[in-house]
Structure formats: C-alpha cells, structure tokens
C-alpha cells in the first residue's frame, strides 16, 4: 500500500502566489491544497489532516491573523503548525502578534527559495515523526487491548482451577478468600473430599507475580489433583510434588506449600509444610479470656530448588476440638509494608487473630484483609493473597 503524502495548505488571495509556492516546493514529497481566502482555509483545515499551513497575512475580508486565531481556538485544528507569509512590516510587535496567534515561523516576501524549502522541510520532518509516534501508539494500544483480552481469559482459566464449591462435611465449616495482585497470580489453593469424609486442603504460593507465576500454579494444580486421591500422607504428597517440580521449574523459582488432611471422625489434622508461612490453630479456652494461638511449624524445605535426597518432608498431627479454627494464608498478608516500609509481620497477625477470632469465620478472613490494608495505607495488596479458614463445629 502506497504511503499517503503529507498535506500542506497554501493560503493566499492571489492564485499566482499559490502557484509560485507550489513550484518552489515541488521537489519535496508533498500533496498541496490551496485556498484563496481565510474562510476557505478554515473549511479545508477542518476536514483534512494537514502537516503545515503557509498562510498569507494580507488578505481581504479575513486576514491571516484572524484566520490563525480561529484555527488556534478550534480543538481540531490548533495543533497544525502555521508559517506566516508576508511582504510588509518586520517590526517586533507585528511579529510577536503572529507568534501569539499560534505561528511557528515567518517567511518574508520576496521569498528566498532555499529558505522556503528549509523551513517547510523542518516541519515536514516533525509531522512525519509525529505520524510515526501515533502509529506506534496505535499498535501499542491494539497490543494492549489484545493482551488485556488474553489476561482476562487467563484469569478465567485460573479461577476455573480453584474450587468452585467447597465440600460440605458435618462438623466442619470452611471459608476461602483469594485476591490476585494482578489479573492472574501465583497463589493456588484446593480442597478435596476423600473417602470417609476426610478433607484434603492444599495452599501454595509461587515466587514472583503475574503470568510466569500463574503458569506454575496451573502446573501445581494439575499435579496436586492427580496425586492427592492416591496419597493419604501429606508428607508423601509434598515429597512427590518436590521430586517432580525440581526438574521442571527454573533455578530462580520456588514454591511454598501447606497440605493437610482433616478427619472429621477423629477431629484430627495431619499436615506437612514446605517452607510455607506458619499456619495457626486458634483455640478458645473456657478458663481464659484470651484464646490460645498455636503456630504449626514448617516440616520441610521449599518446593523445587532441592532434589529429593536433600529436601525431606515430615508430617505432624494435631487433635482439634469443637470451636477450634485453622487459619491458612500466603505470605502477602504478613509481608505487606506500611508507608515507612515497616513490615506487618507475623507478630501483628497473631495478635490480631487473638483479639478478633470470636467473630464468624468468613467475617474474620475479611477483617484480616481490611486490617492489613489499613496498616499499609494502600488500596491494593502488594502481593497475591489467599486465605483459607476452617472451624470445627459440633455435629448435628
């Protein structure tokens, strides 16, 4: 497709002057438009994409200054550079008036051909550069639109791998909250129901953010779902995940994970933690007004960086009681900073849980997020956020 030539508008009430200007500029690659009056020039400027206007000052009815003033106050035409062409008055006051009305330069008659071509060439080059920038901006806008659409599709895909509905188990309440930092994130959680009403709860956090982290969360999702039904030991499952991921993820990536199995018959919780932030069991004691917060220690290293002979994982079992709450989360909660760059930290988190754990489970998770954001004085989190809460209740 042949590129369109830049358009230059020549304005003069004398046709012979228009022809002379065109002849002098014919060596330049331009398309010339001509107007014999200010009114005609305004009509052409309103409908054409002009690179430059060469505007005669002395014209009947509407002179060049009046024409320029109208062009300057019209949003559609104010950006068009104007070079005044005049045969009279080189006084500073006269020239300044032209600049105040939007002129970028002057040409004085009789026009010296080389000066004419030089000045027009400068503004022609500026116009072409502007067109290139606008074209690049258009391409970037189209690319951004496509990327946004793809991100929205990726977000839908990621949300689809998260539990759409939590399983119902007598004597157990579960609540989750997931807030990706961008449209997609590296956090992942899943809840599966096994034989004998046992529940498997998995939460993981891939280092980094955005698309790269999300891709690994997709991988972990598939691995977990394929392994969990056949592996009754949290430690064995986490070990198997590590052995698989070690050969699949880059050296600069790692994953933290926490996996537990809850048995409603015995009300026991067996878990394995791979470098994940400590989970909390919140227990309200009848003999104390302040609940007990038990931090569940890590039982193994990060997933991914180390091979199986180095990264070993153990599991521990806790006996839960009616009224106990289990609080799981990713590190975006504890590691957020305030305006002084002070980290929120685990101590503030446990203190808040201790003081507010009496509220319903769903409200507790919402309140934790609100409190952390209030501490940071931000409107959004700096990292992906995932919360999973469990509460042991009396069986009907």
Structure summarized in a few sentences:
The protein contains nine helices and 15 strands.
CATH topology of the largest domain: Phosphatase 2c, domain 1
Write down the overall geometry. Answer: elongated
Assembly type: single chain
Which structural category fits the helices and strands? alpha/beta
Q: Would you identify the regions where 5 or more consecutive residues have pLDDT less than 50? A: none
**What is the top-level CATH class of the largest domain?**
Alpha Beta
Tell me the total number of β-strands: 15
Strand order within the widest beta sheet: 2-1-3-4-5
Classify the beta-strand content into a percent band. 15-25%
Cα-atom radius of gyration: 36 Å
Average residue-wise pLDDT = 87
Give the number of domains: 2
Largest sheet data: 5 strands, parallel
By DSSP (H or I, 4+ residues per run), the number of helices equals 9
Description of the molecule:
By secondary structure, this protein is α/β, with parallel strands linked by helices. It has two domains: 7-136, Rossmann fold (3-Layer(aba) Sandwich); 162-392, 4-Layer Sandwich (Phosphatase 2c, domain 1). Helix content is 37%, strand content 24%. The chain has helices at 15-24, 38-47, 64-72, 92-100, 113-161, 210-227, 234-245, 345-356, 361-376, and strands at 7-11, 31-35, 50-56, 82-86, 103-108, 172-179, 187-193, 199-206, 255-263, 268-274, 279-283, 292-296, 316-319, 325-329, 385-392. The strands form three sheets. The protein has a five-stranded parallel β-sheet with strand order 2-1-3-4-5, with helices on both faces. Strands 6-15-14-11-12 form a five-stranded antiparallel β-sheet, covered by helices on one side. Strands 7-8-9-10-13 form a five-stranded antiparallel β-sheet. A hairpin with an 8-residue loop joins β11 and β12 (292-296). α2 runs parallel beside α3 and α6 (210-227) packs across α7 (234-245). The longest helix has 49 residues, at 113-161. The mean pLDDT is 87.
